[in-house]
Design brief:
The complex is a heterodimer of chains A (121) and B (407). Chain A is built from 3 helices and 6 strands, in the order βααββββαβ. Chain A has 121 residues and is of the alpha+beta class. Chain A starts with a strand and ends in an 11-residue tail after the last strand. Chain B contains 19 helices and no strands. The radius of gyration of chain B is 23 Å and the shape is globular. Chain B starts with 5 loop residues before the first helix and ends with a helix. Classes of the chains: A alpha+beta (121), B mainly alpha (407). Chain A binds chain B through residues 1, 34, 37-39, 86-90, 92-93, 110, and chain B through 29, 32-33, 36-37, 40, 70, 129, 135-138, 147-148, 150-151, 154-155.
Chain lengths: 121, 407
């Protein structure tokens, strides 16, 4: 089954002096390789902060566009990792290994099954 | 070259390989990671090098090796407890003689999974996932719960085991008081998951039945007790009919229609003797009473020769020992056979409308009695309701067939 790990964290964490972005990137990369080797890694994307977003909706046939973020909160959705796992508990175990779990919050959500083929890792 | 069935090996060996890895690596998470790595290595190497003579030992040692390698590379190794580190650093040939140890690993894991610090529902979820190999989603479907709820229950149970430093061991029999009952319950749960797979396409998962029987035998060797004999007898007697429970197309064959000449007479003889032995040693436990019921069925040469008064008598006894709605339901079915469908229906109606409203077998039994009474419309409604509660493919086919027969 496929799962998404939605990564949320407080962008302020990144601004603190003791935050070592290079180390986080290095560890994240190493873990991605580990996931790949285990056949679990389907892909990931990082997202710009919510204030870079434009919110769009159609009401009465008219488009309304406003500034983001859609949800104002201290922790923001910052990206996602797509995983292949045997079950929810395996997905949770794999998500817990993401270095980002140490600074933010990972929301593990099953991907609704459809007939479309899974993306190739 | 790919002349082996890795899926089959996975189903047969997964539980025992995991149990050994949990012991060797000292925890679930590491062991599960190692298990996945071991099977990945097998998928890569076996097509090239052939299947090793003993796949289980190969998988255990590959998993252990991969785990240590990973720990070393990630720097986690240094952070581990010294005694565990020493153990892990032993070379393969320095490891203690392992045949017996590996034999007992699943039993160790059962004592861990049903440790009294865990709530009952956590014990069940943990056993089904770790020992029976069910996925979180399958357990959720079987217990009409959400996968997210089950996932958390399992995560919490594992951290409790970790935090309380529950040892992975079979405690000495002197300390079994109060724990044996849960362990027997867990072994029976494993057997039932094999005998009555709660989801998926196969009705019987033979490897789980065989494993449960093996575990009960092992337990009996360690510590003879009538309750263990009773459970072992019950499982042997069920198992004696396993081959006749499903037609070649996978559909269910009911007890009364099974080919009795194909029942395994040596299992019946062993199970019956054990049941009678346990029954003669009071206090008589519930497994023993159930085994006596199964033995009564096994003794009947034809379905019509079944001694229903004797069976209904055992159910009276069972209901006193275990006054649960499910036992009351089974007793009602036996009484229907002894005194007619009307009498059974009077007992089942309140159960199906009350405590067993969500239990598919209650509605299936009710539907069957209504059918036998010729109350076609009521039977149709009851079968339709059963269908809504049933996920198992061959059970669904069976009910759908019964529904068509009413037309």
């Amino acid at each position: 089954m496929r799962y998404t790990c939605l990564v949320h964290f407080d962008p302020a964490v990144m601004q603190s002096p003791e935050f070592d972005k290079a180390a986080l990137d290095r560890r994240s990369k190493a873990y991605d390789e580990e996931l790949k080797a285990g056949g679990h890694f389907l892909g990931w994307q990082g997202l710009a902060l919510g204030d870079a977003a434009v919110i769009v909706r159609i009401r009465d046939g008219k488009m309304l566009a406003t500034d983001g973020p859609y949800i104002e909160s201290k922790e923001q959705m910052a990206g996602f990792v797509l995983l292949e796992a045997r079950d929810m508990n395996e997905a949770v175990r794999l998500a817990a290994g993401l270095p980002l779990a140490e600074i933010g919050t990972i929301e593990v959500r099953p991907i609704v099954q459809s007939s479309s083929p899974p993306p190739q890792p | 070259m790919n002349d082996f069935d890795l899926d089959r090996i996975y189903r047969a060996e997964r539980g025992r390989v995991l149990a050994s890895l949990v012991r060797l690596l000292g925890g679930f998470e590491l062991a599960e990671e190692a298990l996945a790595d071991a099977f990945l290595a097998a998928a890569q190497q076996w097509p090239r090098d052939g299947v090793p003579a003993n796949p289980r030992t190969w998988l255990v040692s590959a998993g252990r090796f991969k785990a240590i390698d990973k720990l070393r590379r990630s720097g986690r190794f240094r952070a581990m407890a010294p005694e565990l580190r020493r153990e892990l650093e032993l070379e393969e040939d320095q490891m203690p003689p392992d045949r017996e140890t590996i034999q007992d690993d699943t039993l160790r894991l059962i004592f861990t999974c049903c440790h009294p610090i865990l709530p009952a529902d956590a014990q069940i979820a943990l056993t089904l996932r770790e020992i029976c190999g069910l996925t979180t989603e399958e357990i959720a479907a079987a217990y009409l719960s959400k996968p997210a709820t089950i996932a958390q229950r399992i995560v919490r149970a594992k951290s409790r085991i970790h935090d309380a430093a529950v040892p992975y061991e079979v405690p000495p029999p002197a300390e079994w008081d109060g724990r044996l009952e849960t362990v027997l319950h867990t072994i029976y749960l494993i057997f039932n998951e094999g005998y009555e797979a709660s989801s998926g396409d196969a009705l019987v998962r033979h490897e789980l039945c065989a494993e449960a029987i093996r575990l009960a035998r092992l337990l009996k060797e360690l510590h003879p007790s009538p309750d263990i004999d009773g459970l072992l007898a019950l499982m042997l007697l069920h198992q004696s009919r396993a081959a006749t429970r499903a037609a070649p197309d996978g559909s269910i064959v009911l007890l009364e229609q099974q080919d009795r000449s194909a029942w395994d007479q040596s299992l019946i003889a062993e199970g019956t003797a054990l049941a009678e032995l346990a029954f003669a040693r009071p206090p008589v436990g519930t497994y023993t009473i159930q085994a006596m019921i199964a033995a009564s069925h096994a003794a009947a040469r034809t379905a019509s020769a079944t001694d229903w008064p004797r069976i209904a008598g055992f159910y009276d006894l069972l209901l006193r020992a275990e006054p649960t709605p499910v036992v009351a339901l089974n007793r009602a079915v036996a009484i229907a056979m002894r005194d007619g469908p009307e009498a059974g229906l009077r007992l089942i109606d309140p159960l199906a409308a009350g405590e067993l409203a969500g239990y598919r077998f209650a509605h299936a039994a009710r539907a069957d009695l209504l059918r036998r009474l010729g109350r076609v419309e009521d039977a149709r409604t009851a079968y339709a309701h059963t269908l809504e509660l049933t996920q198992q493919t061959s059970e669904r086919n069976f009910i759908e067939k019964r529904l068509r027969e009413l037309d």
